[in-house]
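Subject: Sanity check before I submit

Could someone independently write out the structure tokens for this chain? I want to compare against mine line by line before I put it in a report. The sequence has 144 residues.
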Amino acid sequence: MLPSESRLRRREDFATAVRRGRRAGRPLLVVHLRAGSTDPHTPGESVPQARAGFVVSKAVGIAVIRNLVKRRLRHLMRDRLDQLPAGSLVVVRALPGAGEADHDQLARDLDTALQRLLGGAPRCSGPPGDTPRSPGRGPGGSAR
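---
Independent answer below. Compare away.
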């Protein structure tokens, strides 16, 4: 379980991470990271540890499924908080497919998103200008 002091609880903290942080999207979740920010609510204290919050809407599924997804995400973040800079705020927003995904799929998407946000993974592995396109798209990438 994620320790209580490592959880985001205030609306302002969620808003700060989402509005002022960087974002990485994956098929099952979106991760917002506000790296190394200091907590204005604790003046005079040293840099606080990284904290995480979770958003799982009704689009994910019924209450039982939403709670299962939250528990899985909390468990996954517990092991990854030490990789984040001190004072970071992380918001993990589950997308509708997360309710049907298993633990390993959520872990892969979370790891990939965090690596991208921390600068560890490139966005495209091919040569410059060689971006994958959807079938039926022209050379400009737009539908004809």
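---
OP: Matches mine. For the report I'm noting this point. Confidence is low (pLDDT under 50) at residues 121-138.
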